[in-house]
């Protein structure tokens, strides 16, 4: 978590590149190193050898490398800082931002915890200085903020009455639909409720395919309680599916949130719709950045949304009360992907001083 500011060195290396070819190499090296868990994760997900993962790894870096190569300039001065900030904006917003992993701006949560939007502006200004002749002063200043933050660091708070449930069910989560499986989850809910939790969050895909029958099963088992369960599920229709977060109480069930940016290629496959075949997860790019539950504004971040910039920032524009981050990372075993997701969620919670609830399956 506290090493996120190391990413701030990248703008300096990019700016000091003696040629565009070197700038390309620096950009590719940074991106490929930050996403080094992707080849192994893809191989595990598809039960294939390493080559498809390596190919996707290289393809994913294309937009990042292209943007930074196009905006690099050998001329020093303020123009270079403006160009890097332009690259940072492009990699933070769609369409390039769809693969804008490991964005240096995420370090704002470590450098300036609690500063909110001022902290984001301060981080942008620091990044700009890193590309200018004033970079030694920027390094010293950022080092001071970093050391102070590390010395006083505390984890984000957990909102009263809320609890996230981490599971270790591997790839069976979302695919196991037996009554015994759901009874086990419900028993977990009752155990946590007995400890005083009223809002219990399960990971992405915890409920598998969401159906009226499943909704009735959960409602019957919650009858007579004031418990609210938030859990991941998939809602399917003829044209594809939505990766969602549902809210369940004894009185009602509803789809609380539809994922804005599912994982490209493995889930989000827009070319299928372009060719008229349909299928794949839908991306609700700028929809429902904040949802309301029992009078509380929630910023949901499901899995892939924690790796990129704009979903978190879009949610923060609406001043939510808490952040709820979920994921299903069984396929990332042995990689750094889930750790990066969790660190990113913590960084945003600390930057904007918001309570954080997390729930992951590994």
Helix-strand layout with pairing:
Blueprint: H1 9-15, H2 20-34, H3 38-45, H4 50-71, H5 78-92, H6 108-111, H7 117-130, H8 135-151, E1 162-164, H9 179-194, E2 199-201, H10 212-222, E3 228-237, E4 240-248, E5 253-258, H11 270-274, E6 291-293, E7 296-302, H12 310-316, E8 322-328, H13 337-351, E9 356-361
Parallel strand pairs: 1-2, 2-3, 7-8, 8-9
Antiparallel strand pairs: 3-4, 4-5, 6-7
Helix pairs in contact: 1-2, 2-4, 3-4, 4-5, 5-7, 7-8
Give a structural overview.
The protein is of the alpha/beta class. The chain has two domains: 4-152, no CATH class; 162-360, Carbon-nitrogen hydrolase (Nitrilase/N-carbamoyl-D-aminoacid amidohydrolase). It has 13 helices and nine strands. It has helices at 9-15, 20-34, 38-45, 50-71, 78-92, 108-111, 117-130, 135-151, 179-194, 212-222, 270-274, 310-316, 337-351, and strands at 162-164, 199-201, 228-237, 240-248, 253-258, 291-293, 296-302, 322-328, 356-361. The strands form two sheets. Strands 1-2-3-4-5 form a five-stranded mixed beta sheet, covered by helices on one side. Helix 4 packs antiparallel against helix 5 and helix 5 crosses helix 7. It starts with 8 loop residues before the first helix and ends with a strand. This is Carbon-nitrogen hydrolase. One of its GO terms (cellular component) is membrane. GO terms for molecular function: hydrolase activity.
